[in-house]
C-alpha cells in the first residue's frame, strides 16, 4: 500500500462548534435511516438461555494502558454495566438485524454514565460513556465465530497503547460512537441466536447461543502481523482470516476467507519493527 503520512486536519477538528454540528447532523441522518431502511431490528429478550453455545469470551475490565488516569478505567466499569444491561439476553431471530446503538442508546449523565476513556482524533481522552466499545469488541469476536452476517463495523484508525496481555488479534474489534458509527449484523439463517453478557470481579464475559446445534464451527486467526516505521512514524498491520470447519469428520476445513486487513498508526514505540521509506510500496 502507499502510505500517506501527512494528513490535514478536518475543519471540525480546528473549530469545535463545527464538530458538534457535524455530529448532530450525522445523528439526525442515522435516525432517518432507522425509520426508512425497512430492517427489522432485534428487540426481544429472553432470560431463558438458548440450548447451544457457539462461542464464549471474556475480557479484562481494568488494564494497564500507559499513563492513563485509572479513575477513567474504574468509571468504564460502571459504563459497561449500564450498556450491557440493554443488550443482555437479546434474541436475534431470522431476518432480524442487531444494532448496538439502537439497543444501548445515547450514553448520558442522566442515565448514570460517567467519563471514561474514548479514542478520538488520534488521542485517548475522557468522554461520557467512554469504554463501552469493550462490549462491541467482545460481541464482534463472538459473531465472527458464527454464520451471522456483519454489515456495519468500524475500527479505530490508530493504536494508542502497547499490548498488555492481549488475547485477540489486533484489529479484531468494533468501535461504536452513537449513533452514526454503529455495529450491526443480520441473521440470514433459519436459526435464532442469543447474546448473554455478565460480569465477574475482573472480567466482562459474554456468549453467543443458538437454538439448534450446528455441525460446523469457525476458527479465526491472524496473519502477516508487522510493526512498521515510516519516516519516523510507527504503524501496525495484519490480516484477520477465518476457517469454517466440520465439527466431525476430523475437522475438515470447508472454506477459508479473509475477513479484514488492518493498517493503523501507532502512538507508542514498538519493541521491534521494520523501517521502510514513505514512498515504498508494501505488498499486502
From TrEMBL:
The organism's place on the tree of life at top rank: Bacteria
InterPro entries: Glycopeptide_resist_protein (IPR052913), Vancomycin_resist_VanW (IPR007391)
Name recorded for this polypeptide: VanW family protein
Lineage: Bacteria, Pseudomonadati, Bacteroidota, Sphingobacteriia, Sphingobacteriales
Amino acid at each position: 500500500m502507499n502510505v500517506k503520512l501527512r494528513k490535514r486536519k478536518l475543519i471540525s477538528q480546528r473549530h469545535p462548534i463545527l464538530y458538534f454540528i457535524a455530529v448532530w447532523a450525522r445523528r439526525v441522518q442515522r435516525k432517518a435511516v432507522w425509520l426508512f431502511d425497512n430492517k427489522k431490528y432485534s428487540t426481544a429478550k429472553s432470560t431463558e438461555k438458548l440450548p447451544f453455545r457457539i462461542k464464549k469470551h471474556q475480557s479484562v475490565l481494568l488494564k494497564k494502558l500507559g499513563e492513563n488516569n485509572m479513575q477513567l478505567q474504574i468509571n468504564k466499569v460502571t459504563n459497561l454495566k449500564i450498556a450491557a444491561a440493554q443488550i443482555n439476553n437479546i434474541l436475534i431471530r431470522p431476518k432480524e438485524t442487531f444494532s448496538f446503538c439502537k439497543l444501548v442508546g445515547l450514553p448520558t449523565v442522566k442515565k448514570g454514565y460517567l467519563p471514561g476513556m474514548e479514542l478520538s482524533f488520534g488521542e485517548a481522552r475522557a468522554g461520557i460513556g467512554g469504554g463501552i466499545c469493550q462490549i462491541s469488541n467482545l460481541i464482534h469476536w463472538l459473531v465472527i465465530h458464527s454464520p451471522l452476517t456483519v454489515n456495519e463495523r468500524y475500527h479505530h484508525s490508530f493504536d494508542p497503547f502497547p499490548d498488555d496481555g492481549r488475547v485477540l488479534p489486533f484489529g479484531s474489534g468494533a468501535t461504536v460512537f452513537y449513533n452514526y458509527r454503529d455495529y450491526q449484523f443480520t441473521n440470514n439463517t433459519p436459526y435464532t441466536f442469543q447474546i448473554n453478557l455478565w460480569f465477574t470481579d475482573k472480567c466482562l464475559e459474554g456468549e453467543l447461543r443458538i437454538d439448534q446445534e450446528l455441525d460446523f464451527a469457525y476458527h479465526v486467526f491472524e496473519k502477516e502481523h508487522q510493526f512498521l516505521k515510516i519516516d519516523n512514524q510507527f504503524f501496525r498491520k495484519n490480516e484477520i482470516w477465518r476457517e469454517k470447519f466440520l465439527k466431525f469428520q476430523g475437522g475438515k476445513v470447508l472454506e477459508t476467507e479473509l475477513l479484514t486487513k488492518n493498517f493503523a498508526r501507532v502512538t507508542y514505540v514498538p519493541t521491534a519493527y521494520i523501517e521502510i521509506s514513505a514512498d515504498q510500496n508494501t505488498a499486502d
